[in-house]
Design brief:
Elements lengths: L4 E6 L3 H11 L4 E7 L12 E4 L4 H11 L2 E6 L6 H14 L3 E4 L12 E4 L2 H7 L6 E5 L15 E6 L11 E5 L6 H10 L4 E5 L8 H9 L3 E4 L10 E2 L2 H12 L1
Parallel strand pairs: 1-2, 1-4, 2-3, 4-5, 5-12, 6-11, 7-8, 7-10, 8-9, 10-11
Helix pairs in contact: 1-7, 2-3, 5-6
């Protein structure tokens, strides 16, 4: 009797959970999802779950060998660059097929006032010329990039509370999407927001803020996502990832 083919999903995203649910229903597959453990109460996917890091690319490669992983799917957040690079190195070392599952990025529409930048540090450089009250939806990590902007006020939204260093003039809003356009518009009005800062995560669940900013004529500083590691194939959705997996395991 053949053992189930073992698939490791580097997860934490909506797409990763959808993919795990579909694959876990197949008795010919053993599905393990790995979560980084940065969120206190993550939404757990179907199948087996492990939480925590691997110890760099060498640790991930060792885990792939020990657990007899047949395919690796990197379905982490588009900005989780370190783990994506580690996955590429580990998969190459162990000769395990690797796919990056990346939802498409957002596309500007007529009326949008977008200011693309390459990093949070660049975002901090440009926002003082655009407004004085910023809505930061870049997550709780990386707030140190804005600490020196002492003349600005920040509304910071994240799933878990941020830790220092953080801007001195800041209010924290703990919330998890999906969000509505009406709710986002009211948030912008209530706090007098005049500039929005976000990352190009591409998630539909958090795109309402872009519509609300467009309607209110508020500029958006949007951090461009890093590309997938060179040579790693990319799927745009779980269905495409399933097709890649079936082909890779035959």
């Amino acid at each position: 009797m053949h053992r189930p083919r073992h698939v490791l999903i580097l997860g934490g995203t909506t797409e990763a959970r959808r993919l795990a649910a579909e694959l876990a229903a197949d008795p010919a597959l053993r599905v393990t999802s790995s979560l980084a453990g940065r969120v206190a109460a993550p939404r757990l996917p179907a199948g087996q779950v492990r939480i925590g890091g691997f110890g760099g690319p060498e640790g991930l490669a060792r885990w792939l060998r020990e657990q007899q992983v047949d395919a690796l799917i990197d379905a982490t957040h588009p900005f989780a660059g370190t783990i994506s690079c580690n996955a590429a190195r580990a998969a190459a070392d162990v000769h395990v097929p690797l796919l990056a599952l990346r939802r498409p990025g957002w596309v500007a529409e007529p009326g949008d006032d977008w200011h693309p930048v390459g990093s949070l540090a660049q975002a901090a450089d440009v926002i003082p010329a655009l407004g004085k009250r910023a809505f930061l939806t870049t997550g709780r990590m990386g707030l140190a990039a804005f600490v020196h902007l002492e003349d600005m006020w920040f509304l910071v939204r994240s799933v878990d509370a941020p830790e220092p260093p953080v801007p001195a003039r800041m209010e924290v809003l703990l919330a998890r999407g999906p969000f509505t356009v009406e709710g986002e518009a009211e948030l912008l009005r209530r706090h007098g927001i005049d500039v929005l800062v976000t990352k190009d995560s591409g998630a539909a669940a958090t795109a309402a803020k872009l519509v609300a900013a467009r309607q209110a004529g508020i500029p958006v500083v949007i951090v461009r996502r890093p590309p997938a590691p060179a040579g790693v194939p990319v799927a745009a959705d779980p269905a495409e990832a399933v097709r890649w997996l079936r082909a890779s395991l035959t």
